[in-house]
């Protein structure tokens, strides 16, 4: 084989390889390819091997059909109050029709950017800076609506539009920071004042409750003290009354004893006269006694007394005969049982009344009484409330002749 034949074989092999390469196109998953035949669109293929007519069909362009996120550089936008702010935009979109994206617009990325900037300036131009900073959701929604309507004929679907950053001028930002600082200090001062007011209110309420409880305690203490004083006065009055009746009974018993002793001793006028003469020196012995006069008719007086109460004897002498003493007078003149007079035991009724008063005084005061405690009025007779040492029947028996030592002991 000569050189000319070998060259022809090599050229034929190269042509066959080139023909095979031109007949097969490999399209990856997630991409779409635009196929043209003799410069005219024929079909869109994606995800696999595609057969082409060599030197007649060709792949015009490959388009990424996945959802894409594009961030555009900051755009200077003037607000309604003539302040320039820089706004960054992030657009998320997806190509639904690859043929429209290639034949409908020269560069769909630039088209999306320019429409986004124009729509953003239109929306933000009708808002103040404060509204722009606080109305991100409204701006995002309007931008997405405008872009979706404008890019629908390009085969694009706008899924999201977000404002990534809104940067006001440095001077405005500094003023805003100062304003925010002032607002925070204002809120802090308001909260501090509110807390102080609540604290003062709670403190005042606590002091009020404390004063109310203190007043209630003092009131109850005063009531108990008055009640105790009233009971003490009643007990003292009972004791004084009993003491007076006992003194009167003692004097009556003493007089009865003296009278019975005199009757039992059967004294004669001679003894009385002797006693009278015996006491005269003692009467004259006083510091204020300087002179005593004895009546001259004293003997005649004794004689008349003897004649009145004595009997004349056979020898003509008047002799006094004492009257007969009955047994009751003798028994009364004798010394009785006086052991009970010196008894120092406390009356059980008085001890019971004192114990009841102590129980009332030690009773705890209620923390919050529903109604003021009003002491009951004293009964018409203290004897009804406290058991006295003597009742009326026993008092009526004091000083009577039939009153015996047993009754005195009971009193």
Automatic annotation (TrEMBL):
UniProt entry tagged with the keyword Membrane: yes
Highest taxon, organism lineage: Bacteria
Signal peptide: none
GO CC annotations on file: plasma membrane; side of membrane
Cell compartment(s), UniProt: Membrane
Cited InterPro entries: Band7/mec-2_domain (IPR050710), Band_7 (IPR001107), Band_7/SPFH_dom_sf (IPR036013), Band_7/stomatin-like_CS (IPR018080), Stomatin_HflK_fam (IPR001972)
UniProt keyword Transmembrane helix, yes or no: yes
Annotated coiled-coil segments of the chain: none
Chain positions covered by the region annotation Disordered: 361-411
Major location (coarse): membrane
UniProt keyword list: Membrane, Transmembrane, Transmembrane helix
Annotated SUPFAM superfamilies: Band 7/SPFH domain
Recorded topology in the membrane: Single-pass membrane protein
Family: Belongs to the band 7/mec-2 family.
Name the record gives this protein: SPFH/Band 7/PHB domain protein
Provenance organism: Corynebacterium poyangense
């Amino acid at each position: 084989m000569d050189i000319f034949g070998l060259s022809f074989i090599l050229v034929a092999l190269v042509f066959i390889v080139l023909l095979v390469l031109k007949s097969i196109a490999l399209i990856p998953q997630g991409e779409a390819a635009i196929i043209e035949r003799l410069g005219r669109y024929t079909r869109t293929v994606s995800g696999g091997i595609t057969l082409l007519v060599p030197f007649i069909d060709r792949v015009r362009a490959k388009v990424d059909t996945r959802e894409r996120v594009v961030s555009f550089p900051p755009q200077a936008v003037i607000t309604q109050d003539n302040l320039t702010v820089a706004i960054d935009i992030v657009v998320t979109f997806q190509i639904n029709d690859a043929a429209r994206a290639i034949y409908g617009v020269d560069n769909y990325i630039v088209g999306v950017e320019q429409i986004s900037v124009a729509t953003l300036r239109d929306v933000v131009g009708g808002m103040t800076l404060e509204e722009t900073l606080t109305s991100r959701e409204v701006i995002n929604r309007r931008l997405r609506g405008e872009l979706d309507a404008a890019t629908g004929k390009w085969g694009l679907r706008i899924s999201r539009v977000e404002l990534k950053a809104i940067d006001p001028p440095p001077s405005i930002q500094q003023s805003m920071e100062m304003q925010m600082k002032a607002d925070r200090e204002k809120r802090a001062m308001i909260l501090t004042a509110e807390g102080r007011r609540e604290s003062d209110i709670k403190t005042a309420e606590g002091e009020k409750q404390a004063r109310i409880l203190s007043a209630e305690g003092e009131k109850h203490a005063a009531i108990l003290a008055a009640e105790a004083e009233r009971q003490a006065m009643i007990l003292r009055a009972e004791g004084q009354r009993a003491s007076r009746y006992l003194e009167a009974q003692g004097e009556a018993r003493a007089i009865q004893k003296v009278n019975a002793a005199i009757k039992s001793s059967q004294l004669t006028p001679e003894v009385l006269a002797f006693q009278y003469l015996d006491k005269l020196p003692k009467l004259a012995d006083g510091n204020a006694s300087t002179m005593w006069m004895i009546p001259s008719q004293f003997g005649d007086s004794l004689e008349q007394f003897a004649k009145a109460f004595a009997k004349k004897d056979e020898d003509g002498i008047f002799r006094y005969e004492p009257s007969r003493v009955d047994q009751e007078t003798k028994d009364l003149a004798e010394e009785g049982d006086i052991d009970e007079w010196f008894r120092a035991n406390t009356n059980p009724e008085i001890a019971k009344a004192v114990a009841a008063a102590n129980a009332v005084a030690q009773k705890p005061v209620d923390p919050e009484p529903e109604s003021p405690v009003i002491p009951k009025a004293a009964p018409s007779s203290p004897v009804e409330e406290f058991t006295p040492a003597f009742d009326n029947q026993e008092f009526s028996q004091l000083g009577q002749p039939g009153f015996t030592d047993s009754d005195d002991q009971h009193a």
